[in-house]
Write a structure and sequence with these properties.
Layout: E1 4-15, E2 18-29, E3 33-37, H1 44-51, E4 59-64, E5 67-68, H2 76-82, E6 83-86, H3 98-108, H4 114-127, H5 143-155, E7 161-165, H6 173-188, E8 193-196, H7 200-206, E9 209-214, E10 217-222, H8 224-229, H9 234-242
Length: about 260
């Protein structure tokens, strides 16, 4: 239990009469990469936003390590420093350079001295292959480059876990791989991650656990081999068949 970074118990979220999350429970352990898949509108992004309380939830509990996230008693800013989040639409400050976008949290939130913050920002930009673009503004960068800056900004806070909300969905197809490559390198380095994505190739290569969500619940969980090759539920099989990824159920296709 000591290596559990995030623990979610019976999480519930409603918008009016619509139940978006209907009793979701999940554990994510240190160094684990969890990829959440499922049809649109099934609560995947809402689940991520509840984890760091960007979206308040209506029932259940979320723990970051052993700390229950409760806005009445928890310093949410401190929690969010430990939970890095990368959104679909980058959320960069357009009036700041790539370098300043990464540095701003280090100076204003972590209160690091300028020299220390500069060194940290440079390190994270280099880590995602964006150091040579540090003086450029978001308008001068491609979608993939902007997303890599957003990843560097989240990493600069030294989070215990990274959340990715469909980070490639807004990118042109030829730019997707440069972002996935950064994410794969983070996974290989042992970063704890929860990724909402339709990139099945990434999920197969990088995930330790696949979570299939449908209609606000977790319908099935397993390793990539278990869930993609031998899904247990008919609903999972239906979803995977619509992806057109050549899934072959009931046998191992690795050697074909």
């Amino acid at each position: 239990m000591n290596d559990v970074i995030v623990r979610i118990n019976n999480l519930q979220k409603r918008y009016g009469s619509a139940e978006v999350l209907r009793g979701v429970s999940l554990e994510v352990r240190k160094n684990e990469v969890v990829v959440i898949i499922g049809p649109s509108g099934t609560g995947k992004s809402t689940l991520l936003r509840c984890i760091n309380y960007l979206t308040p939830f209506d029932g259940g509990d979320i723990y970051l390590e052993n700390q229950r996230i409760d806005p009445k008693v928890t310093n949410l800013n401190h929690v969010r420093q430990q939970i890095g989040m990368v959104f679909q639409d980058f959320n960069l400050f357009n009036h700041m350079t790539a370098y300043d976008n990464v540095m701003v949290g280090l100076r204003r939130v972590k209160r690091l001295p300028w020299k220390e913050a500069r060194a940290k920002a440079s390190h994270e930009l280099e880590r995602v292959g964006m150091l040579k673009f540090q003086t450029q503004y978001p308008a001068e960068l491609s979608g993939g480059q902007k997303q890599r800056v957003a990843i560097a900004r989240a990493l600069a806070m030294d989070p215990k876990i990274m959340l990715f909300d469909e980070p490639t969905s807004a990118l042109d197809p030829e730019l997707v791989e440069e972002v996935l490559s950064v994410m794969k390198s983070l996974a290989e380095a042992g970063m704890t991650m929860i990724v909402v994505s339709h990139e099945i190739g990434f999920a197969r290569q990088a995930a330790d656990k696949i979570v299939f969500m449908d209609e606000g619940v977790i319908a099935e969980t397993g390793t990539p081999e278990q869930l993609f090759l031998q899904p247990k539920t008919e609903r999972t099989r239906q979803f995977l068949s619509k992806l057109g990824s050549g899934f072959s159920y009931g046998k191992d296709t690795a050697n074909e």
